[in-house]
Amino acid sequence: MSLIHDNIVIVKSKIAEAASRSGRRFEEVELMAVTKTFSAEKVREVVDDGLLVLGENRVQELLAKRPLLPSSVQWHLIGHLQSNKVRKVLPVVEAIHSVDNVDIAGDI
User: Fold this and answer.
1) What is the average per-residue pLDDT within 55-70?
2) Contact (CB, 8 A) for 57 and 82
3) If you average pLDDT over residues 80-90, what whole number do you get?
4) 58, 79 in Cβ contact below 8 A?
5) Are 35 and 56 within 8 A, CB to CB?
6) pTM of the full predicted structure?
7) Which of 87, 90, 98 is CA-nearest to residue 57?
8) What's the pLDDT at 1?
9) Separation CA 92–CA 11 (nearest Å)
10) Segment (H or E) for 47
C-alpha cells in the first residue's frame, strides 16, 4: 500500500481510540483531509482511499481542484475568505470554517 493509505489507517485508528475514550462512536467523528499545496492527482489518492471531505485553504485552489475530482467530494473552505470570492465559493462548498468579519458573514 501507499504511504498515504498507511497514514490514513493510523489517523483513523487514533480517532477510534480517542472516540472510545470519550464515550463516542468512531462514526460520529468526521475526518477531513486538507489539500493545501497538494496537486489534484495526489488528492485523488486520498479520495480513492475513501476520504470524501476535503478542506482547502484558498478559493482559487479549491476551484481548480474541484472539477478534477469526483462530485461525491464535499469541499470545505478552511482558509481566509475575501469578500470578492464569496460568490464564487458559496455554490461549491459544504462549509466555510474561516469567516473572520461581520461583513463577510453578511455576504454569505
Assistant:
1) 97
2) no
3) 95
4) yes
5) yes
6) 0.90
7) 98
8) 66
9) 27
10) helix 40-48
